[in-house]
Structure formats: structure tokens, C-alpha cells
Amino acid sequence: MEKKIIDIGRKLKKEFRPNKMLFVILAGLVVAFGIYSSFYKVDTEETGVILRFGKHVGYSDPGLHFKIPFGVDKVYLVKTGRVFKEEFGFRTVMPGERSSYTKRGLEEESLTLTGDLNVSDVEWIVQFQVVDPYKYVFRLKNPVETIRDISEAMVRKVVGNSNVTDVLTTDRALLAARIQEDVQDILNEYDIGVRVVTVKFQDVTPPDPVKKAFNEVNEAEQQKESMIFKAREQFNREVPRARGEAKKTIEEAEGYAIERINMAMGETNRFRALLSEFRKAPEVTKQRIFLETMEEVLPRLEEIYVMDEGGSNLLPLLPMRSERRGGGQ
């Protein structure tokens, strides 16, 4: 019995030696893996979301960081420094300097019914940025698909409440701003940590069967805007000139009125002075007025006749003016 026990011990000892080596190797691999998995790197455009035993404990900035290995700490990298772009109605095939895009198979996404029951082919983009990486990762299962669904719903809502002319011509920027506001409001309600940077219509065209007619309408609208611009330019040029002329005329009229008033006041004062002298010496004043009047009137006459006081004798005189002129010569 004792011998049998000794044989069993020797056998176990022989089997234990290789198992010990295997254990040492496994332990070394575990330690190496733990050291390797304890470090992680965060790129410049990223933010690390740190979970410890499944609970959010903080964020990590760009650079090299340490974490507790073996699944205790988990880090999710989110690109918070990048602006993401989602395309609707088209897809970019080759991004870069020679980028091209395709619309094949995307008609259901781009064709939109307007408020006046017309169909427009709308291509637009939505740009957004992650402002809260934890909410972006854990609030929704697929936030990008959610953003796409909300954006498409809001475009169909806003375009569906507008006329096709507004969508194709003048109100595109206004409609895009309204869509951006509505999308942001819904995302705020979902609280997924996303900020909408911009919503922009890439291209809005009518369907191919009616494209020619709508292009003519668009050209007419452009001509209308051009004529309005020219009319405003003419208005800005002519109205100030007319206002200047009107002001000049008014100032001249006011000056003329002041001059006439001053003249009238001078004549009034002269008449009052003459009346005062007339009251003092009526005959002398009357005679002086008569002589002054004759002195002013007679030089204007071609011929002069002198009558006596009774009026019975009429004596024609020589044209005194001509004689006066001859004498002057």
C-alpha cells in the first residue's frame, strides 16, 4: 500500500512539472495583456467616454491615457471635433478634389410633394456635431439613423407647407433655416448630445417632365429681380436729385417771399411818410408828386403836347425827345 502511494506521488510530480510551466506562460501572457490593455490613445478629434463597471466616470482628452484592464474600465472614442455630414437625395461617390455624386436609386428620398400639390426633386445636406459624447453613445442605439429620419421628416413637412415656386426660387434659404430649427428642437427633446451646424439645400429642381417649364419660370423670376434692382437703383439716383431741386425751389420761393415782404414794407413806410407830409402841406406835396411823376413818365413818350389850364388851346410841340437826342449829339 505504501509503495502504491509513493508511485502515485511520483506520477503526479512528473505531470505537475509541465503544468507548472504552462501556468507560468499563461500568467505571463495575462500580465502582458493587462499591461498592454491598460493604455489607450485618444486622437485629436476624439473624446474618450470612460465607463467603470458599466458606470460613467468621466471623459479623456486627446493623448495617451491609463485605464484599469480586464474589462473594469471601458473607453468609447467619439469624434467630437469633427463636423459630420449626411446627404439626402444624392451620394458622394469619390470625395476629394474630383468628387462626383450619384442620384441613382434615391428618387424616393429626393422627390417631395409641395403644398400646392406639385412635385420637386430636393437634394440637401445636414451637418451636425457631437457636443455630449456620453449621450450620443448611450441615449440611442443608432443616432445617425435617427438624425436622418428626423431631417427627412422635417424637410417633407416644411416643403409640404410651401408653394413649389418658393421652394425652387426665392425662399430656399428661409426654408432651410426653418428646417434646421425644427430638427434641432426635436434632437433637444431626444437629448442625444447633438448640435445641428447647418441644413442646406444642395439642389432643388422640378422633375424631368416639367423641368423646362420651371426653368422658364425661374428665368422670369431672375429677370423680375433684376428689374426691381434697376428700379431701386433709378429710385436712389432720381429721388435725392428731385429732393434737392425741391429744396432749392422752396428756398428760392422763401427768399422771394422775404424780398417781396421787405419791398412791401418799404413801400408802406414810404407811403406813410408821404401821407404825413401831405397832411402838413397838401398843395405843395401834391405839386411835388405831380412833378416827380411827370419826370418819370415824360422821358418815355415819343411826342409831347402842352395844353393851357382851360383846355381850349392845344399846341403841338416838336418831338422834344428827338431834339433832346439831337442836342445830345
From TrEMBL:
Subcellular location field: Membrane
Keyword flag Nucleotide-binding: no
SUPFAM superfamilies listed in its UniProt record: Band 7/SPFH domain (SSF117892)
Main location group: membrane
Sections of the chain in a coiled coil: none
Highest taxon, organism lineage: Bacteria
Membrane topology: Single-pass membrane protein
Keywords recorded for this protein, A-Z: Membrane, Transmembrane, Transmembrane helix
Described purpose of this protein according to its UniProt entry: HflC and HflK could encode or regulate a protease.
Protein name in the entry: Protein HflK
